[in-house]
Inverse folding.
């Protein structure tokens, strides 16, 4: 009888080993394909602290040019939004509240809208008059600020990045 129990225990142990090896193999293959652990790496990197914003020219809604020189004169919140971006729409109320309260600077906040012209005009209607709205189809401002994903919120002081986040509530207040 004890031999029978020992054989059954050995069979259970072998079965567990086969299952564990199969699971490990599938996990290894999934990691190699990028389907596991990809969530941490899908978000583009944020602009670096103290980075100088590169030169750019982007049109305001009224057609006048907005350039790097317009970033001089204090701290300001700059929000980068893309049309058709659900996360951008989710962050819009927080951006508007932070902009209205000037929580992140004394200079006029800026909203940078990327996408087709008709779509950016529709999105622009959601912003208040005290926010400078800039549109870009060529991504010049985004490239100058090293923005690679949307939404991105950047604090800028005299042309240099002083903070960056993917959510407004993750930015330092009073910078």
């Amino acid at each position: 009888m004890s031999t029978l129990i020992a054989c059954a225990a050995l069979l259970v142990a072998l079965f567990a080993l086969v299952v564990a090896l199969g699971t490990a193999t599938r996990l290894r293959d999934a990691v190699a394909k990028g389907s596991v652990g990809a969530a941490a790496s899908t978000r583009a990197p944020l602009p670096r602290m103290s980075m100088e914003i590169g030169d750019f020219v982007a049109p305001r809604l009224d057609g006048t040019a907005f350039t790097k020189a317009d970033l001089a004169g204090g701290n300001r919140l700059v929000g980068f939004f893309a049309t058709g971006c659900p996360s951008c729409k989710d962050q819009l109320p927080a951006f508007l509240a932070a902009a209205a309260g000037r929580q992140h600077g004394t200079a006029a906040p800026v909203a940078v809208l990327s996408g087709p012209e008709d779509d950016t005009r529709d999105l622009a209607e959601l912003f208040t008059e005290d926010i400078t709205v800039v549109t870009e189809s060529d991504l010049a401002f985004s490239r100058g600020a090293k923005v690679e994903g949307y939404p991105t919120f950047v604090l800028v002081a005299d042309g240099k990045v002083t903070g960056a986040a993917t959510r407004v509530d993750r930015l330092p207040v009073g910078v």
User: Anything to note?
Assistant: The longest helix spans residues 2-33.
